[in-house]
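Q: Given only this backbone (123 positions), what sequence would you predict?
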């Protein structure tokens, strides 16, 4: 992923481990996910900030997951996802742990069901 920041005349590139656009196809995701078990760190946020990614999740090498949302061009750590409001780092970690220890496909079904159930109640 590369975006040219013309006012600064620089090129910034960053390829997330996962990315999702909500509501429409876009050149850049609304949510980028970084899994930094062997490389990368919190400084990845600077690149995403220049690109303008609204939300970034960073899973670090100590198995901590943090959500960051862009607010006035600065990332602020959040307790819940901006786009998937019912998700917190704790809930995501619980689903991932289930998938690692129990069953990957069943874990996927459970998280999809959880998101569908909770989104039905938000409307």
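A: Predicted residues:
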């Amino acid at each position: 992923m590369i975006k040219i920041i013309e006012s600064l005349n620089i090129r910034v590139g960053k390829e997330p481990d996962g990315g999702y656009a909500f509501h429409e196809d876009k050149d850049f995701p609304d949510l980028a996910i970084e899994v930094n078990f062997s490389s990368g760190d919190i400084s990845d946020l600077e690149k995403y900030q220049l690109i303008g990614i609204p939300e970034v999740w960073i899973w670090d090498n100590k198995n901590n997951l943090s959500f960051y949302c862009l607010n006035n061009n600065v990332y602020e750590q959040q307790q819940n996802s901006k786009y998937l409001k019912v998700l917190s780092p704790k809930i995501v970690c619980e689903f991932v742990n289930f998938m690692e220890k129990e069953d990957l496909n069943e874990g996927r079904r459970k998280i999809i069901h959880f998101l569908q159930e909770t989104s039905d109640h938000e409307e």
